[in-house]
Amino acid sequence: MSNYIYHYTSIENLAWILLTREIKFRSLTQVDDLDEQERKGLSQYAKYCLVSCWTQSEVESISMWDMYADRMKGVRIGLPEDFFVENALCPIDVKYDDKVYGNFRNHEINDVNLLGIHKNKVWEFQKEVRFRMFLIMKNKTELEITFCEKEFQNYWMCTKEPPDKNRSVPRFSKISADKISEMKILLAPKTNNAHKHIVKSLAEKAGIPIENIEKSKLRIQ
Fold first, then answer.
1. Alpha carbons 57 and 51: distance in angstroms, whole number
2. What residues are paired with 92 via a beta bridge?
3. pLDDT band at 31 (very low <50, low <70, confident <90, very high)
4. pLDDT exceeds cutoff 60 at 100
5. Please, which residues bridge with residue 27 across strands?
6. What does residue 80 show for φ and ψ, rounded to 5 degrees?
7. What are the beta bridge partners of residue 4?
8. What is the mean pLDDT of residues 197-204?
9. What is the distance, to the nearest Å, from the Cα of residue 72 to the centroid of all Cα atoms in its chain?
10. Angle between helices 193-206 and 11-20 in degrees, nearest 10
11. pTM score
C-alpha cells in the first residue's frame, strides 16, 4: 500500500480538484518562500520549473491550516503518493538548509536537481514533499512539459535567452481515476455544518466513501 501525502487547501479548490480530477502546478516564482528563486541565482529560470507542494506529515499543523486552508475553514486532502497518471511524477523530499547551491547565472547550470527542492530552515515545519515538472520551448511561441532534468538542463544550456514574452502559466496534471476513491478529506478546525455538508456532497459525487471524511480533532476558537 502506498504512503499517503497531504495537501492543505480551500473547499473551493477541493471542488475544482474533484470536478476536473487535476492538480495545479505553479512556477517557483509563485511559491510561498520568495527567497527560494533568488538564493540559488535562479531568477530568470525559476518560472520554467513547476511544482505541486504537499506534506508527508499526517499530524495536523496549525500553521498550515491557517496559511493554506482558508484560515482554518478549508480542508486537508490525503492521497497515495503515486496518485498521478504520469508515472514520471514522483514526490521529492524538500531539503532545508541555509546554504546557497549552484547558480544559473549566464546559463551556467551546475545541477538542475537543485531547482525547487531546497528551502530555508524556517520552513522546516512544513515537512514538504514536491512533485516537479519543467518547461522547454516546443517552438517559437509554445512551451511544452518535460519531466527529465537532463532534457531541461541541455535545452537551456543551448538557448541564448529565455523567452521573456512567454510567461509561465499554471499547468495541470491528472489524478489517476482509481486513486480518487482513496482520497482522505479532513475538515479544518473552524469548519461548520454547512462546510461539512458541501464537502460531503462533493465527495459523494466523486465516489469518495463517506468514511474517508473526518473533522479535525483540534479545538480552536
1. 18
2. 130
3. confident
4. no
5. 50
6. -60, 145
7. 80
8. 97
9. 19
10. 10
11. 0.86
Q: Which residues on neighbouring strands pair with residue 186, listed in sequence order?
A: 76, 214
Query: Kindly report the CA angle at 65 between 62 and 70, in degrees rounded to 5?
Result: 145
Write the DSSP assignment of 23-69 as a string of letters: EEEEEGGGSS-TTTTTTTT-TTTGGGEEEEEEE---S--HHHHHHHT
Cβ burial 11-40 (10 Å sphere, 16+ → b, else e)? bebbbebbeebbbebbbbbebebeebbebb
Closest CA to 117 of 5, 3, 175, 40: 40
- According to DSSP, the residues that pair with 81 across neighbouring strands are none
The type of residue at 109 is: I
Helices (H), 69-215: 149-157, 177-180, 193-206
| 133 against 98, higher pLDDT | 133
pLDDT for 130-165, tens place per residue?
A: 999 888 777 666 777 877 777 777 776 666 555 554
Distance CA 193, CA 67 (A): 22
Judged against a pLDDT cut of 90, whether residue 7 lies above it is answered with yes
What is the residue whose three cell numbers read 489524478?
175
Look up residue 94 and give its DSSP letter. Answer: P
Q: Residues of the chain with pLDDT > 90: what percent?
A: 55
Domain boundaries, given as residue ranges, for the chain: 4-61+82-178
The confidence score (pLDDT) of residue 105 equals: 45
Cβ-Cβ contacts under 8 Å for 66 (sequence gap 6 or more): 72
Confidence of residue 192 (pLDDT cuts 50, 70, 90): very high
Q: What angle do CA 43, 46, 48 make, to 5 degrees?
A: 135
